[in-house]
Amino acid sequence: MNKMLKIAVIGGGSSYTPELVEGLIRYHDTFPVGELCLVDIAEGEEKLRVIGELARRMVEKSGLPIKVVATLDRREAIRGADFVSTQIRVGGLDARSRDEKIPLAHGLIGQETTGAGGFAKALRTIPVILDICKEMEELAPEAFLINFTNPAGIVTEAVSKYSSIRSVGLCNLPIGTKMQIAELYGRAPEELFIEMAGINHLNWTTRVVLDGKDCTADFLGRLSDSGGFTMKNIPDLAWDADFIRSLGALPCAYHRYYYMKSEMLAELLESYKEAGATRADDVKAVEAELFELYRQPDLAHKPAQLEQRGGAYYSEAAVQLMKSIYNDAGDIQIVNVRNGGIIACLPDDAAIETNCVIKADGPHPIALASPLPPQIRGLLQVVKAYEELTVEAAVRGSREAALQALTIHPLVGDERAARTVLAEILEQNKAYLPAFAAE
Amino acid sequence: MNKMLKIAVIGGGSSYTPELVEGLIRYHDTFPVGELCLVDIAEGEEKLRVIGELARRMVEKSGLPIKVVATLDRREAIRGADFVSTQIRVGGLDARSRDEKIPLAHGLIGQETTGAGGFAKALRTIPVILDICKEMEELAPEAFLINFTNPAGIVTEAVSKYSSIRSVGLCNLPIGTKMQIAELYGRAPEELFIEMAGINHLNWTTRVVLDGKDCTADFLGRLSDSGGFTMKNIPDLAWDADFIRSLGALPCAYHRYYYMKSEMLAELLESYKEAGATRADDVKAVEAELFELYRQPDLAHKPAQLEQRGGAYYSEAAVQLMKSIYNDAGDIQIVNVRNGGIIACLPDDAAIETNCVIKADGPHPIALASPLPPQIRGLLQVVKAYEELTVEAAVRGSREAALQALTIHPLVGDERAARTVLAEILEQNKAYLPAFAAE
Amino acid sequence: MNKMLKIAVIGGGSSYTPELVEGLIRYHDTFPVGELCLVDIAEGEEKLRVIGELARRMVEKSGLPIKVVATLDRREAIRGADFVSTQIRVGGLDARSRDEKIPLAHGLIGQETTGAGGFAKALRTIPVILDICKEMEELAPEAFLINFTNPAGIVTEAVSKYSSIRSVGLCNLPIGTKMQIAELYGRAPEELFIEMAGINHLNWTTRVVLDGKDCTADFLGRLSDSGGFTMKNIPDLAWDADFIRSLGALPCAYHRYYYMKSEMLAELLESYKEAGATRADDVKAVEAELFELYRQPDLAHKPAQLEQRGGAYYSEAAVQLMKSIYNDAGDIQIVNVRNGGIIACLPDDAAIETNCVIKADGPHPIALASPLPPQIRGLLQVVKAYEELTVEAAVRGSREAALQALTIHPLVGDERAARTVLAEILEQNKAYLPAFAAE
Amino acid sequence: MNKMLKIAVIGGGSSYTPELVEGLIRYHDTFPVGELCLVDIAEGEEKLRVIGELARRMVEKSGLPIKVVATLDRREAIRGADFVSTQIRVGGLDARSRDEKIPLAHGLIGQETTGAGGFAKALRTIPVILDICKEMEELAPEAFLINFTNPAGIVTEAVSKYSSIRSVGLCNLPIGTKMQIAELYGRAPEELFIEMAGINHLNWTTRVVLDGKDCTADFLGRLSDSGGFTMKNIPDLAWDADFIRSLGALPCAYHRYYYMKSEMLAELLESYKEAGATRADDVKAVEAELFELYRQPDLAHKPAQLEQRGGAYYSEAAVQLMKSIYNDAGDIQIVNVRNGGIIACLPDDAAIETNCVIKADGPHPIALASPLPPQIRGLLQVVKAYEELTVEAAVRGSREAALQALTIHPLVGDERAARTVLAEILEQNKAYLPAFAAE
């Protein structure tokens, strides 16, 4: 176990990469990376160069024996890797901007990973990820795919159904939630056990255990006083106390798009109308600033501004996961994996996001304390059916599955809206959806 | 098997009763009713008198030995009955009118049986039906409850979970659909086999078999040309051909409230704004006219105008069901029963609406040809979760279950709207919801 | 629907065929067969000739326009058939004799369809039936396979898993049981509804309904007085009253090999020791006599002696099934079909034997009144696991699946016995098991 | 978390207790027991006194602040306990001797925990354990019940179904197996991950993972060379290599009673015939010797002879479990818990034995890598059905459930043998089975 590890980062030119580099440096003693191989596409060459140089400066400053490679040759990056992490954005921020604007133009929520926007992103992303998996099957069949690319749950389901590669889908939301709950109780995160159940970006905290006692009811009570937890990039509307008590669980930040649909939509529409911009446009500006910083030849650490970007705990989550696999740690982390009966009301081959024991052979999900109640089950099932159809649409280039996916999504839920929005999505993403052209 | 049967009709003063009487007369040779006992509440005494007299004139004209009793004593009506049919409207048309208007006032679909309107109706109806069941357990424990009262599926689930009485939920939509498909093919209804799967008012025709051949694809093709089937009381918007093909099944008329939510809502809002009235108000007018007719002392048959009322096939469905039970017929009818594993993606104790073999001990559901596809499964599961919560809310008087039920319903789907609408429903129906007062 | 039908009978030289011919003649008005094509293998040519001539004489006497063909060309027989029925015995009675003797030689029950004997028969039979299915897929893809060949349940499971042909497995035991129960109550069989659940030759009568009332408890009480029902070829040991009451169901005749293992084994061993013969040897003698009769040129009806052979109701069962399919009858018959969730404790793709509605597109199983209790569930599950492994062993020629199949069978249940018996079975059936040679 | 803990040991006079005391002393720094309360029944008073004194000497020698109490007052022992461990033997070794001899007298395997012997033990034990649980519900509702008493799986299922107490069933077989596998590979136990699935004493090792690689096939190959693992008290017959490979898993030592039924039975019968004694009689002799040793006033440690007794790792297993709960360790241990969907082919409320993460709120089972194959599934299901019926028999005093339990057990499997053996078991255990008297 003392060989030096090779990590390939697909989408290595991402502004998030310094997060990851910082983590790899911090944990090098227990996770001895020997080669960090950043790979990107030709359009991202300049960014990749900037990030590669920053990474090299960071490593140099650390004094650690990590070789940093920046390359456009994906096969070389993957060959012999121990971990392949993916943080790609097919179509770039321009595509994201379209994903957000198409639904808004029809009075629907336009969001990067949820609803019609997330659907478009899934269609573009899944074929690329499955291509990467095919290369891994050939060049690094034992490596783990650590997927950050959103929609992380749908991507995990596609990989698990259509590839033999061991993969884990990762999101910073669960670890963030756990940190916030720990803070609420004035405890260290490792002192509490939280049960999270659901799917990526639709995940309920169903149980909080402190010192062996179930304190979920107490937690839900405190929560409604505190205004609830949220994510950087989601408007922080407070949860109603009665609603939370009757739900019997803490929703995640993205639940606001469902449970507070009207207000969230109003807010998105207003800021779009006022500024003519969506979140993608803000991010573009932030990214430009970040790269300005990254280019400074004396910068050799992750700049504080990156946290504003919304990626808190990303590095933490990723390095912790790889480190626990490498060290056969057996600790519990909340990641996206194949269901296999853990959430009884979902298909066995669905991807779910829940507590897993991380062993050297990957994550093993653990049983829920009790079956999910109907108020959680119903919403979860309909969104999972949407995800199942979306995977089929992306893999087979099926307009039929695509139309049905959008129709049953609670944030669309109308076949006429679905047809209109689908037509625009397919049209505007034509360049990224060859499978649909073939039909 | 040659004793004369006693039928108790709870809500006997309903304008639909002549339908039923006509059926009982028509099928008397194979379903020998000896006593027809119409019972109603004090507020309905005058209507009951009118209907009772019309019924007596119809029977007299037929020359059959059926004794017609009209009474306010429900226990006496139930005592010794072979079949108890329920066609009640707790709170009358005024309550229905409120059910329709409360959601509309908040920009939500206001419909008698679907969405927030149907939810309010369920809260009022379930306690009364369970009271009837308790009396049946005492006075006619072997009788079948034939329930027409909407929302018929939710009511069936409540009875099946909270009573030992054998009950069947009945709707005229499935038989109507079958008639329309038969007509499309120029065949007699008994010549075709259709598989319907789902729950009451959310039921998909998933398979059409003619002469032993599966002709579902052909049927869905023809259908999109024909504009689709509908119900009297639901705006007849045509189904899109692509949508139907990708769905792989025929939706029912009520599916328009889901799949065409925006247009249906717009239509409801417009007619409400224009006329200040909803469907309940129209029905009031129709009812008044009908009772005017019924009062004519020389009327001794079901008047043609009743069919305008929307109850086509109601008599057919009800008498066919009771007749098949009485005669151990073994024919297939589509009714509401306990799931018991037939629809694998729903709980075993859920009420479903599907093909059943009707034997002397009641309906036995038959297996589906294949599991429901995700596009059907997802919507079905979330609406069933709503129904499960609604049963709990009604039986336990639980505000918590009620709030969650409304929140996950696809026609509400927003906890803030749910809270507002729930508060108004509870307030305006206070007189009918003692269980909620107790909380 | 008025074309004349073609029936192909594979194994047409069987002594049972006159049963079938008689049935086809009797029901010709509602099941208008135009061509009866008997096909057999070269080794059976003489028998086929005898049967063919007898069939022709029977038809001639009836005056019906049925063409009888006897041929060795299986493809011609299958081409264009509406129904293909299989009643083959791969390896003949000699193979059966070996199936019975190998287990007995090791102190295990040796029986034609159950335990190690039935296992050997399954290994020989499944490949032949799957070949027939392949020819049907080419030459008569819309035809139904009506399979009588034992072990009928295992064969049905193999066909359902490995062929696209619609098939039904058929046994005379369920219809016989129903007749006996009807007789016990002095009623016509169609007047009672019995629920049978399980798999072929391991089937429990779990419910008896008369006039719409569940009279199972009464039935089980009467039963223990009556000594129980049985089959011609199974020693008629009486069921213990306490045992039956605690079981809560009527076992089938073959259950004696399980529940009365010791006595049944003792009896088989004794008659083997005494006479040096098993049931197969008796049957050989009966067959010889029957064919002597069949050869008489003036015989033009099914001789009474055939019923001694054990095939009572075979014709009845087969013709009833084909007739109901042809006529879209919708009546209930107990046949072997794919589970599809009806018996919740078995895999969905397992073959089960239970009540089905017979429609033009085949049998549709109907829901059980309640889940099977543990005393039934446990035995059923272990025998079904044996069947699943046996199908795998036969299809893939897998010694590993074969060894495990025998090991968990309750009538073997010891891996050392399983290994010994398996080695002998494979050796003695080498000629019929090419798939195993390949391994 | 720094209060001193109270442990109550029901059956504290057991010869195993010094094992436990040794463990409590060894791990005192991370599992700070302040009071060890040994309790026993009046018949065991002398043994309790001997053990109590030995325990006190052991503690004294250790210099640790553990108060040792020996008492006949069970309520006082339980009051305020943090952990209650049960290691009782209802009826003593005399009852065990009868459990072994009754089946042998009828040609059936007579074993302490398996088959008819284990069944008798379950009938006697379950009511006593449920009484203890009732006292815990009153006097120590937050305490964990750590149950060692056999049959540990059946007892766990009874507690989980009929009590609100958190309980874990514990056996030394899994930890022993893990130790042996580790030794085979020359590794420390914590370096390997083994998946065990099944129920107590019928548990398969389905997966061995070393350094993140699945090496199950390699392991099964090595195993058949090594002769297999076993337990002190089970004859060590070697597993056949072909059998193990086709099974695809390592059986546990108790599987020999199933897979090698004939030889095991022959061996038991022979030693019974030769010596007139069974294992219980041997144990009596060993116990007498042990207590002779324990009485020596200068003995202040666990004597080496105790390991001959068969209890290797018992202390290890028990203290590790309590320690991990107390410390919220999150390590993986193989214990008996409620299934909750982990083994999909068993009921949710069945007790299973499998890998669990041990947290402060108890064990959380983790998902299996894949569903159990049919060769494991079938045997597991039938034995679990036996266990389910046995729990019902014991709790309700039901002769009917008892008869069916024995009938379907693979080591009985014959209703006539079951009836005979059941009658003797009920007769000879009358004093311990009041529930059956009531019937």
Automatic annotation (TrEMBL), chains A, B, C, D:
Site (Increases basicity of active site Tyr): 112
GO BP terms: carbohydrate metabolic process
Source taxon at top rank: Bacteria
UniProt KW keywords: Cobalt, Glycosidase, Hydrolase, Iron, Manganese, Metal-binding, NAD, Nickel
Cited Pfam families: Glyco_hydro_4, Glyco_hydro_4C
InterPro entries from the UniProt entry: GlycHydrolase_4_CS, Glyco_hydro_4, Glyco_hydro_4_C, Lactate_DH/Glyco_Ohase_4_C, NAD(P)-bd_dom_sf
GO MF term (any one): hydrolase activity, hydrolyzing O-glycosyl compounds
Classification via PROSITE patterns: GLYCOSYL_HYDROL_F4
Binding site for substrate: 96, 150
Co-factor remark: Binds 1 NAD(+) per subunit.
Binding site for Mn(2+): 171, 201
Domain Glycosyl hydrolase family 4 C-terminal intervals: 196-412
Cofactors: NAD(+)
Family, as annotated: Belongs to the glycosyl hydrolase 4 family.
Protein name, entry field: 6-phospho-beta-glucosidase
Organism of provenance: Paenibacillus sabuli
Organism lineage: Bacteria, Bacillati, Bacillota, Bacilli, Bacillales
